[in-house]
Amino acid sequence: MPPNSDVIELGPSPDTTDVLCETDAGPKGTASDLSTLKSTDGRKLELVWINIILFIYVHTASLYGIWLMLTTTKWQTDVFAVILFSLASLGITAGAHRLWAHRTYKANVAVRLILLFFNTLAFQDAVYYWARDHRLHHKCTDTDADPYNSKRGWWFAHIGWLCCKKHPDVTAKGKLIDLSDLQRDPLVMFQKKYYLILMPIFCFILPTLVPVYFWGESLSVAWHVPALTRWCLMLNVVWLLNSSGHMHGKRPYDRSISPTSLVFLIWLRYGEGYHNYHHVFPWDYKGAEMGRYSQDLPTILIRIFARLGWAYDLKSVSMDMVRKRVLRTGDGTHPVWGWGDKEHPQEDIDSTTITYKKKVK
């Protein structure tokens, strides 16, 4: 245990969780686990028009916000919007995703408060519901019980799942997901209880008022740029994991599952770009291999918290396990193909032992 008496142990037991699928580490990957489940039953979508209208407004207003960023906004407002975008992304990646949904590490009250604030700023539902849906996504990937089932098309996986009523399987199997760890976390339950009060304040009201009050930005610009456009861009970046991250890209760790390594998100460094790796090893706090693969923003933040003693029990996967999995189920696109590859890490080269060297006459 770390020197923090205020840490709450999450989950049914310290070493088990409903999220870690044994088949992810098995020789057949996850395909066998899903083969008996439906990918889609052709059910007609029941549209939720209030959501559709709101999303149309948000995306239209965000296009105007982008134009304002190019023509009108003060530089302080642009910087403020980027900062808010980064903090909100950490609330999803380091918080809702890696800490609460997958329990890849543990954290004290200070870290959980910080990440809950960032998460509320992101407005992607309360951690409690976000984690439930994400655990269900891993348990039932690309079946009718998957909230953002990519087998129903790119648009559905990206935004359509929020514009229609849930498939009955999502509701039924969502009730079976173990959420006892979240129910025992008073901070998560506090956010859940008061979310509809906290979210408008942190996501929209404060991001609008701060630029107006502190550097005299116009109310229209403050509303359209750091509030709406920042939020809309954040949503679409996360949604890309559900859509493109299950359709386009390579599968170096398991070719039998739909999640891919998405180049754009890898380049962005906000985390979760190595989505194929994540679905194979969902308990890894890095969401990627060791070394240059794990240098994204949430991983760096978690490591900073760990050095401060605020985060601990960071779970990772050994390189030996990764190599064996790549050779067994990968699609052959893993960056390091062998000796001489320009991407071969120097530390691996330096630590290699070469025996029976050719004698130079």
From TrEMBL:
UniProt cofactor(s): Fe(2+)
Classification via PROSITE patterns: FATTY_ACID_DESATUR_1
Residues annotated as domain Fatty acid desaturase: 75-282
GO cellular component: endoplasmic reticulum membrane
InterPro entries according to UniProt: Acyl-CoA_DS, FA_desaturase_dom, FADS-1_CS
Keywords (A to Z) from UniProt: Fatty acid biosynthesis, Fatty acid metabolism, Iron, Lipid biosynthesis, Lipid metabolism, Membrane, Metal-binding, Oxidoreductase, Transmembrane, Transmembrane helix
Topological category with respect to the lipid bilayer: Multi-pass membrane protein
GO molecular function: iron ion binding; stearoyl-CoA 9-desaturase activity
UniProt comment concerning the protein's domains: The histidine box domains are involved in binding the catalytic metal ions.
Name of protein: GL22317
UniProt gene name: Dper\GL22317
